[in-house]
């Protein structure tokens, strides 16, 4: 089975690494950024090219959403399977006479951060049963959590991930901005953050809510608003309003 | 050393438990809610009362912010130390002729959830060195992380905790609301949530930001907005606006 990964960013790197760690052969890693490709190629011992796309049965596009359509056009082979890895694109975005599919790993990827690949949920969509089976087989070598998903469902999965990951990280950024401004080490908050996450393994988040908004503690809410400004103040008001709406306060 | 905990809620329960686990003697747990007190008393083997407050050298008030002032008046003894456990109140809120202090554990407490007490940061403020030393000694038996903090600093610590804990949990609640509505198991998102938190142990949250807003991906932002309504839509817009402001997009 010949497989090529196209791209040299965070997703390409981690997917290539997951393949190598699970002894899934990779024919090539292909892309535009030679510096990045070379680094991945050397670390994982996979051939790379910026010019000649190897012949393969499966191409996996790990490029940014807005590049998927254009990059998909470089695959001129007909009898092959092409998968993109985006949470927010239909498989029909791919342009070519090949069979189209989606191979979506639900995780946040940073190159410098190691990952436990077997816990990453993979969502798969394909045109026919054979392709589906093939992608399931590959994903199941990497992860214990492989599922089928339509584009409709994938859109929602991606949206939920934005709330549970991207926005959560931004709250950490804003929290750190405040702690930096007051010379309070952000490390103080790590046990609290850990516990906030541990809790939802045992308790519904709705039942785990604490803080001034759910207590309807107007004094503290006003005190806090006086300490804030700009975007952090907007976040503070919007989140509290949403908490109070959820609990009908 | 005679110590009394006043209150029967989550903070009272966990603080009493932390005392017992670390062999710090507790004279009594005192409060209004006999049912709750009785449960704590039986589990931790500490005497309780709803009527007669025992004589002690230290009283720790674990009651809600708006009750601190009134409850503090029941301590009529003069030669003793009284501490409240609130992040957002000055020690001067306490009304009595005793010495006043603050003993603030930075954590989110739910009765049904076990905690690793030694990781909880404790912030201490007192009127004099002896009282400070006493509270430091007690807190240091429970936790490895004990610090002094003025009211000014404590206010900010509490505010940052709201962003890093209360708001993060509310994002989980809204995310779960969406996943429930689409019949997508929320468990799918737990590895992603774990990774979002693990990342900030290694990378600055500002550098770890991913998602459509920081990529300035207008197509996905608009797609997502069409899937949302009400408070979740407001959160979506506010958070993205704040992300784009932070990265000057």
TrEMBL record, chains A, B:
User: Which segments constitute the Pyrroline-5-carboxylate reductase catalytic N-terminal domain?
Assistant: 4-75
- DUF2520 domain span: 120-242
Instruction: Spell out the Pfam families in the cross-references.
Output: DUF2520, F420_oxidored
Among SUPFAM superfamilies, the record links this protein to: 6-phosphogluconate dehydrogenase C-terminal domain-like, NAD(P)-binding Rossmann-fold domains
Reading the lineage from the top rank, the first entry is Bacteria
Its name, as the record gives it, is Putative short-subunit dehydrogenase-like oxidoreductase (DUF2520 family)
Provenance organism: Chryseobacterium defluvii
């Amino acid at each position: 089975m010949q497989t090529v990964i196209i791209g040299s960013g965070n997703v390409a790197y981690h997917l290539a690494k997951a393949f190598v760690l699970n002894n899934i052969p990779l024919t090539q890693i292909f892309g535009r950024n030679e510096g990045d490709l070379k680094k991945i190629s050397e670390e994982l011992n996979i051939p790379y090219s910026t010019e000649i796309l190897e012949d393969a049965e499966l191409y996996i596009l790990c490029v940014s959403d807005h590049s998927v359509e254009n990059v998909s056009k470089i695959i001129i082979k007909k009898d092959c399977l092409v998968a993109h890895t985006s949470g927010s694109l239909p498989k029909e975005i791919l342009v070519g006479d090949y069979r189209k599919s989606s191979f979506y790993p639900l995780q946040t990827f940073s190159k410098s951060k190691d990952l436990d690949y077997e816990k990453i949920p993979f969502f798969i969509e394909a045109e026919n049963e054979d392709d589906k089976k093939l992608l399931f087989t590959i994903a199941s070598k990497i992860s214990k959590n492989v599922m089928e998903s339509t584009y409709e469902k994938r859109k929602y999965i991606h949206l939920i991930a934005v709330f549970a990951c991207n926005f959560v990280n931004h709250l950490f950024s804003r929290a750190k901005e405040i702690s930096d401004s007051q010379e309070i080490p952000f490390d103080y908050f790590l046990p609290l953050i850990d516990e906030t996450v541990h809790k939802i393994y045992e308790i519904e988040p709705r039942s785990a809510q604490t803080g001034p908004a759910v207590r309807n503690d107007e004094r503290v809410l006003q005190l806090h608003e006086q300490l804030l400004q700009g975007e952090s103040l907007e976040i503070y008001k919007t989140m509290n309003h949403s908490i109070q709406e959820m609990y009908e306060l």
